[in-house]
Amino acid sequence: MILVFWSLKCKTSYNFECAKYIFCNQQSIDTILQPQWRSWICPIAYGPCFLQYCAFFCLTYLFNFVLGCLLNRLLAQGVDELAAWIVGECAELEYEVKEQRKFRNYVKKEMTRLKNEKIKMECCLDQADEHIRHLESNLEFLRYEVCEVRGEMLRAQNIQSQVAAELRSQEFAQALVALEEKRKELALELSEEKASRMDSSTSSCPS
């Protein structure tokens, strides 16, 4: 748009300079006009100077008026389209900002929830570690108790074996004593029988 206005300004100033030069110097229009403008002014190029000036002035302003109307129409349409585009972009940006705010709030809530869950998990892990340490201490105590029980069982087995050996030895001694008593009883019986036999033999012999 800036280039279009600059070109119109240049052409308008050039046209005024041409008309002023023709009116003041009474020269032909061919000596001042550029080649691209001669085809427009050819029908009135060789008339009187006043008619040439009027025709050139009218054509210049008619061209500028038509071009200005077209530019105004284009600018108005462009401004409307630009305004509609800006309004649409603003609405889209507002929607995106709202969505980003919602997402940011959601992310904050999720971060808070995750932090709370992390704290809870850390507490649970600490409790689990403490429980594991307690179980390990109980396991060590149970191992010590098992070792003590095994030692007691071994000592009990040794005592039991000793008692069994003593019982066997006592039973053997008692059996020996019983046999000795029986032997004495048998010897006594034998001696009594011998004595009775000797008495009977002496009594049966004649005097």
Strand content: under 5%
Radius of gyration: 72 Å
- In whole angstroms, the N-to-C terminal distance is 192 Å
Please state the structural category.
mainly alpha
Number of strands: 0
Helical content stands at over 70%
The unreliable regions are: 1-12, 19-34, 38-47
Chain-averaged pLDDT? 74
How many DSSP helices? 3
Query: What string gives the helices and strands in order?
Result: HHH
**What is the 3D form?**
rod-shaped
Major β-sheet, in short? none
Keywords: Coiled coil
Give a verbal description of the structure:
This protein is mostly helical. The chain contains three helices and no strands. It has helices at residues 2-25, 35-41, 49-204. Helix 1 packs antiparallel against helix 3. Residues 1-12, 19-34 and 38-47 have low confidence and may be disordered. Residues 169-196 form a coiled coil.
Summarize this entry quickly:
The protein is 90% helix and 0% strand.
List keywords for this structure.
single chain; 207 residues; mainly alpha; coiled coil
Could you give the topology of this structure?
Elements (H helix, E strand, L loop, with lengths): L1 H24 L9 H7 L7 H156 L3
Keywords: Coiled coil
